[in-house]
C-alpha cells in the first residue's frame, strides 16, 4: 500500500493575477490533513488540481497512486468524495432525491442505508429542490452525498461553512466515525481553529500560493510557546538568542516575553543561561500562522 494519498511534485499554475506553486506536497494516507491559510492563498485552486478540474502548467500529481497526467480515470473518481466550497448553481432546480439517484447510478460503492442514515442524523429532508434548501441544509445534504459511497479519499473544502454549532458537532462525529477503519484519508481546508484542532492529524500552512510547512498537529502545538523569562542579565539582544525565537517583547522589569517554535530547546537554553522561566503559554493556531507568515516575509526580504 502506498504511503501517501496525494503527492504533488513541482506543481505550478500561472494565472494572470495569481501564481500557484511550485507545490511539493505529500498528503499521508489514513489521516486527516487540514490546509489552512489566508483567503485567496490557493487552497481551493489546489483542490481543483487534485481533482483534475483544472490542469497545472507544470509538475505532476498522483492521487491514490494514480498519475493525473492523462486526466482523472473514472475508476479513480469513484474512490473519491468531494465537497466543494460552493454548491453548483446548475443543480439548483434538482431535488435532493434526484441528485442522490444520479450518484447511486454513478458510484459503485453507493450505500443507500448509509445515505439515509446520514440524512437522518443531519436532519435533512432530500425531498426538496436543492436551490430551495437553506444554506446550512444544502451544505448538510451535499456533505451526506459526498460520503454516501464511502470513498477512500474525501476532499472537504470548508466543510462547516454555514453550519450551526449543533450541525457542526454532528459533522465532526460523522467524520471521526468515518475514519475509524484506519484506511481512509481526509484532506480539508478550514478557517475554523477549533475545527482544525478537533479534526486534523496534520496541518499544512499555505500563503500566497506556496506551502509554508507541513506539521503533525500535536508536535506543532507542543513546540510553539510564548515563554515569560526573567533574569538580572536578560536584555532584548540576549532574549533574541533563544532557540527558535520568533518574537521578543519587554514585559516589564527584568522579564521578557519570548515566542519560540522550539519550546523544549528553548527551555533548556533558559536553564543553561541561568534565567528563570516565569510562565509558559501555548500558541493558538492563528498565532502560529501569523508567526510563520512573518518569518516567510522576512526570509523573502533577505533573498
Ligand atoms: N477560475 C479562476 N480564474 C482565475 N483566477 C482564479 C480562479 N479561481 C481562483 N482564482 C484566483 O486564485 C487565487 C487563489 O484562490 P483560491 O480560491 O484557490 O484561494 P483559497 O485559499 O481557497 O481562498 P478562500 O480561503 O477565500 O476560499 C485568488 O487570487 C483567486 O482570485
TrEMBL record:
Keywords: ATP-binding, Nucleotide-binding, Transport. SMART domains: AAA. The keyword Glycoprotein does not apply. GO terms for molecular function: ATP binding; ATP hydrolysis activity. Pfam families: ABC_tran. Residues 1-233 form the ABC transporter domain. SUPFAM superfamilies: P-loop containing nucleoside triphosphate hydrolases. Coiled coil: none annotated. PANTHER family: ABC TRANSPORTER ATP-BINDING COMPONENT, ABC TRANSPORTER ATP-BINDING PROTEIN ALBC-RELATED. This is ABC transporter ATP-binding protein. It comes from Paenibacillus arenilitoris. The lineage of its organism: Bacteria, Bacillati, Bacillota, Bacilli, Bacillales.
Amino acid at each position: 500500500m502506498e504511503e501517501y494519498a496525494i503527492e504533488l511534485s513541482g506543481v505550478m499554475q500561472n494565472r494572470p493575477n495569481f501564481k500557484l506553486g511550485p507545490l511539493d506536497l505529500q498528503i499521508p494516507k489514513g489521516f486527516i490533513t487540514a490546509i489552512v491559510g489566508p483567503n485567496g492563498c490557493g487552497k481551493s485552486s489546489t483542490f481543483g488540481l487534485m481533482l483534475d478540474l483544472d490542469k497545472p502548467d507544470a509538475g505532476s500529481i498522483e492521487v491514490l497512486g494514480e498519475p493525473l497526467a492523462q486526466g482523472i480515470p473514472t475508476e479513480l473518481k469513484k474512490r473519491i468524495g468531494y465537497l466543494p466550497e460552493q454548491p453548483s448553481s446548475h443543480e439548483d432546480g434538482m431535488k435532493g432525491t434526484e441528485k442522490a439517484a444520479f450518484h447511486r447510478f454513478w458510484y459503485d460503492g453507493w450505500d443507500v442505508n448509509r445515505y439515509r442514515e446520514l440524512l437522518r442524523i443531519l436532519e435533512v429532508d432530500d425531498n426538496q429542490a436543492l436551490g430551495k434548501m437553506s444554506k446550512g441544509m444544502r451544505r448538510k445534504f451535499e456533505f451526506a452525498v459526498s460520503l454516501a459511497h464511502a470513498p477512500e479519499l474525501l476532499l472537504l473544502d470548508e466543510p462547516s461553512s454555514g453550519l450551526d454549532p449543533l450541525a457542526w458537532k454532528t459533522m465532526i462525529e460523522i467524520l471521526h466515525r468515518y475514519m475509524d477503519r484506519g484506511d481512509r484519508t481526509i484532506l480539508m481546508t478550514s478557517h475554523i481553529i477549533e475545527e482544525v484542532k478537533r479534526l486534523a492529524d496534520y496541518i499544512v500552512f499555505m500563503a500566497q500560493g506556496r506551502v509554508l510547512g507541513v506539521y503533525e498537529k500535536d508536535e506543532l502545538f507542543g513546540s510553539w510557546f510564548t515563554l515569560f523569562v526573567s533574569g538580572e542579565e536578560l536584555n532584548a539582544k540576549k532574549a533574541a538568542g533563544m532557540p527558535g525565537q520568533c518574537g521578543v517583547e519587554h514585559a516589564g522589569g527584568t522579564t521578557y516575553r519570548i515566542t519560540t517554535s522550539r519550546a523544549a530547546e528553548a527551555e533548556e537554553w533558559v536553564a543553561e543561561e541561568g534565567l528563570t522561566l516565569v510562565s509558559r503559554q501555548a500558541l493558538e493556531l492563528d498565532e502560529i500562522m501569523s508567526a510563520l507568515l512573518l518569518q516567510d516575509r522576512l526570509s523573502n526580504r533577505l533573498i
